[in-house]
Every structure is written in structure tokens, then in C-alpha cells.
Amino acid sequence: MNIEILRDYCISKPDVTEGFPFGEDTLVFKVKGKIFALANLKGELSINLKCDPELAIELRERYSSVIPGYHMNKKHWNTVIIDGSISDDLLLEWIDHSYELVSNPKRNKNSSLKKK
């Protein structure tokens, strides 16, 4: 996955805006004014995604390219290093999960993501 595909996917979702509130190295995606993804554009491409807390821990244990969210609440955010070790389909699924958690927080209290 590259930044163009990642960006196109994120902005294709309803009510999404993008911007650089933290400087030119971090592309931020918001839904209804709330952040659901942050892409690091300097150095190795990575993305911070919101995640169900229990699932966040499981993903970190399962995938070496998933680490606690850089500069984020480690309970609710993961940083995914986009180095080819995670399939594009799985990464897009995680983006969907983050988007849903942020855009519909009450509906997604018991949200589950397919475990792969």
C-alpha cells in the first residue's frame, strides 16, 4: 500500500475531511470533525488508527508492524507500519474499523472486527 491508495480510500468515506493540523509530515483524516486516522509521511509510511482496546492488544501481539499508537492514547490507538507485512485488505479493514468507531461511537460499543 502507498500513500495515494491510503488517502483515496480514507477520503472516499462519507463526511471525511483531510488536513495537516500537526505539520506537513502528518496527514490527518477526520470524520464529523474527529480524527480516525493519521498518516506519517516522513520516513517509513505508517498510519495511526483507533481500535477497540482488547483488539488493539491482540493485533500488537500478532503483528510486529502493529505497535502502540505513537503520540496517541495507547489504549485506543495503534500505529501500523506499512512495510508490506500486512495485506492491503486487512489494512483497509482496520481503517474501516477506526472510521466506524469514531463516526458511530454508541453503535460500535460492542463492535467486533473479524480476527484473521
From TrEMBL:
Coiled coil: none
The entry's keywords: DNA-binding
SUPFAM superfamilies found in the cross-reference section: YjbR-like
InterPro entries linked to this entry: YjbR, YjbR-like_sf, YjbR/MT2646/Rv2570-like
Molecular function GO terms recorded: DNA binding
Matches recorded under Pfam families: YjbR
Protein's name according to its UniProt entry: MmcQ/YjbR family DNA-binding protein
Organism: Tenuifilum thalassicum
